[in-house]
Design goal:
The chain is an alpha+beta fold and 284 residues long. The chain folds into two domains: 155 residues, Methane Monooxygenase Hydroxylase, Chain G, domain 1; 97 residues, no CATH class. It is built from six helices and nine strands. The strands form three sheets. A four-stranded mixed beta sheet has the order 4-1-9-6. The protein has a three-stranded antiparallel beta sheet with strand order 5-8-7, with no helix packed on it. The model has no long low-confidence stretch (mean pLDDT 79).
Length: 284
């Protein structure tokens, strides 16, 4: 640009040698105006280029900041909020990098069409472009790392889901086993008793020809089911009671209450029910 201004000034000076004083002053003014216009145009071109240059630098800075936020969020605890921060910043980085590439292309085009021919400016643009490409490489590595982490999280989620299903299955299985054990335990501690007159017991085939429970088709529904661990007292509501079924002596007491009615107190349940789980009592 300096060479151009010098040549213009020399040409105007040579042409001014044959002019009058007034003409020389006019020529000098025109020369100054022409030089000022050239300077203004150069300034405008330079301002335009520097404006885009500053935008690119600001874009690089903002990408670096967003990259730092992604790295911090990635290193932090795995929460829905941190995953959202990563997604938002990665989207911003991709948009900002695309804008930077477009502005670098604009800079190169402006410099190509500009009358300014500066090797330093060209080198500066090339340096910016190299920074952008380095950022792109880092972002690509970061995306690969995030993808690997997402795959690991998904695999862990599947494993946890599988473990949860196993836990549910084991819980249900244990529940069923506990219920089965409880039912078996209840059956082991179950006994049945019945009391009635001779005619009633015969009618239900519980008593036949003087024998107790000899018939296989006696009416089981006529008996009352009890838990031998808890049911140790049985009332017969009669002033006459006789045990027809067999139970070891010394394991029970047949006594009367205040109304003179008989009731049975089982003092050793385990031995009392060891011979038979069915108690048959004849009453009148």
């Amino acid at each position: 640009m300096k060479k151009i201004l010098i040549l213009v000034a020399c040409a105007l000076s040579m042409s001014a040698c044959d002019m009058t004083k007034g003409e020389k002053q006019d020529a000098m003014q025109q020369q100054r105006d022409s030089l000022q216009r050239i300077i203004n145009e150069k300034d405008m071109e330079l301002d335009d280029i520097l404006g885009v240059f500053n935008e690119v630098q600001d874009g690089i800075r903002r990408i670096n900041e967003a990259e730092g936020r992604v790295t911090i969020a990635e290193a932090g605890p795995e929460k829905a909020s941190s995953r959202e921060v990563i997604r938002e910043n990665m989207d911003f980085i991709k948009q900002a990098m695309q804008q930077n590439r477009e502005m670098i292309a604009q800079l190169q085009e402006k410099l190509k069409n500009s009358s300014i021919r500066g090797t330093k400016m060209q080198k500066t643009i090339e340096s910016l472009q190299a920074q952008i490409e380095a950022q792109a490489a880092r972002i690509q590595e970061l995306e690969a790392s995030l993808a690997e982490k997402d795959a690991l999280i998904e695999a862990q989620g599947d494993a946890i889901a599988g473990l949860s299903n196993d836990v549910v299955s084991l819980t249900e299985e244990n529940k069923q086993k506990a219920e089965k054990v409880q039912q078996q335990d209840k059956e082991l501690n179950s006994a049945w008793f019945v009391f009635g007159t001779k005619s009633e017991l015969k009618e239900q085939k519980i008593l036949a020809k003087g024998d107790v429970l000899k018939s296989s088709d006696f009416n089981k529904d006529y008996f009352t089911k009890i838990d031998i661990r808890y049911d140790k007292d049985i009332k017969f509501y009669s002033k006459s009671a006789q045990l027809l079924s067999t139970h070891p002596a010394g394991t029970y007491q047949l006594v009367k209450d205040k109304q003179g009615q008989y009731e049975l107190h089982i003092t050793d349940p385990k031995k009392f029910w060891s011979v038979s789980k069915y108690l048959v009592v004849l009453v009148k």
